[in-house]
Amino acid sequence: MIRESNHKKKPYNKNNLKRAFDATLGGMSVYRASRAYNVPESTFRDRTRQNVDITCKHGAEKEERKLADHIVFMANIGYGYSVTDVRCMAADYARSLGKNVRA
User: Fold this and answer.
1) Cβ-contact 93, 67 below 8 angstroms
2) Which residue from 12, 47, 67, 84 has the highest number of Cβ atoms inside 10 Å of its Cβ?
3) What sign does the dihedral 92-98-101-61 (CA atoms) show?
């Protein structure tokens, strides 16, 4: 069974994200810039702390969708993966695609 999240992602404009980022470079706080430019604070804070690249796209990429579909398929036929298995599988898959993976 797949759990559906009740959390809705707040859409934001990429241009506003860039403007908010520029405003923080000028001295504005992350909280104030996120409110002023209508960007989710947690998303913006991740970008300013350099946890996520400022140009990163939001939403599932094709590769993520392919992995998720595989996990769902395996669960439907009775072979569910543990959280640890999924994390290892995702890291291995990302490395095979040449993506940078944190330890």
Assistant:
1) yes
2) 47
3) negative
Minimal CA–CA distance to 17: which of 41, 43, 50, 39? Answer: 39
3-state secondary structure string across 21-44: HHHHHCCCCHHHHHHHCCCCHHHH
For the chain, what is the domain count? 2
pLDDT digit string, tens, across residues 8-62: 666 777 888 889 888 988 999 989 998 999 988 888 888 888 766 667 765 557 7
- Token pair, residue 100, equals 């940078």
Measured CA to CA in angstroms, residue 44 lies from 33, 63, 84, 94 at distances of: 9, 24, 28, 24
Does any domain span residue 22? yes
The reported pTM is 0.48
